[in-house]
Amino acid sequence: MRKLAALEQRTGHQFVVVTVPGLGGHSIENYGVTLGRTWGIGRKGVNDGVLLIVAPVERKLRIEVGYGLERALRDDEARTIIDSAILPAFRAGDFPGGIAAGVDGVIREISPSERLAA
Fold this sequence. Notes:
Helices cover 52% and strands 16% of the residues. The protein is of the alpha+beta class and 118 residues long.
């Protein structure tokens, strides 16, 4: 997504969206943390990465936030984005729309200029 590249260029924050065919028996929390570390999402020493992970077959999704962004995007805010933006679209069968809404919600929280524009 161009939005993700623009966010990284503007703020340095890395935000990755991934849809996986399955979690291989792992919890989505552990899968997300492992994936984020393996891929090196976020700047080293800053740990400012965000991962939106969707496992549609298992009906699981999660927003995993690096320590460097936890003040900007707390767990309760991530849950609100999932509950109010992503899940309604998913339930209506609009997976691309749900992902786009989730991306917009996360960007609003972690990018000060986006919060001012909202």
